[in-house]
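Help: read this over?
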Amino acid sequence: MIQANMVILPYCDAAAGWFAAERARLTTLGRMPSYPDGQIAAIAQVNHLILVTRNVSDFVDFEGLTIENWFV
């Protein structure tokens, strides 16, 4: 019921390109991001969305990503 009414955004070429650049940048700084977190961040960033998460520490290193924690 919920899934039928929910838009699921794809991991598109733009998201893959953004994540590749961010992964390379962060790796040179010694902060290798997890692949799933990077995909989530990339989808949010290329779609100009705010990433709402309780787990801010997994996303804080991504450049240009807007993050909000609604649990504080």
User: Anything to note?
Assistant: The chain is about 40% helix and 10% strand. The first helix runs from residue 13 to 28. Strands lie at 50-52, 66-68. The first strand starts at residue 50 and ends at 52.
